[in-house]
């Protein structure tokens, strides 16, 4: 079950600000700002840029999920592995504490 979609600001590794469409609850977890029509000088995130992601592991079933992290200064991105975050768990419709399990940096298609 997906949550409400919205447009949010993503700052790439070269400091260009774009917007992208993603789930609003995931954007809130990542601390991303909403796109207001003027705060993304680069426009929509180009298809050749694959955003950085933070991986989170469910405490009981071990399933991993990933969340796009729009800024390298965000707490979700800078948090040490093993840090616990309270997140919304769609499967049970309740909150659960996920463990930060790793991250993947931004990639570009050449």
From the structure above, extract its key features.
mainly beta, 8 strands, 110 residues
Give a written overview of the molecule.
With 110 residues, the chain is mainly β. The chain has one domain. It has two helices and eight strands, in the order E-E-H-E-E-E-H-E-E-E. The strands form three sheets. It has a four-stranded antiparallel beta sheet, with helices on one face. A two-stranded antiparallel sheet has the order 1-2. A hairpin with a 5-residue loop joins strand 1 and strand 2 (17-23). The chain is globular. It starts with a strand and ends with a strand. The model has no long low-confidence stretch (mean pLDDT 86).
Number of helices: 2
What is the radius of gyration computed over CA atoms, rounded to a whole number of angstroms? Answer: 14 Å
Poorly predicted ranges: none
The whole-number mean of residue pLDDT values reads 86
Ends distance: 34 Å
| DSSP E strands, number | 8
Strand order of the largest sheet: 5-4-7-6
Helix content: 10-25%
- The rough form would be described as globular
| SSE sequence, one letter per element | EEHEEEHEEE
Strand content: 35-45%
Oligomer: single chain
Structural class: mainly beta
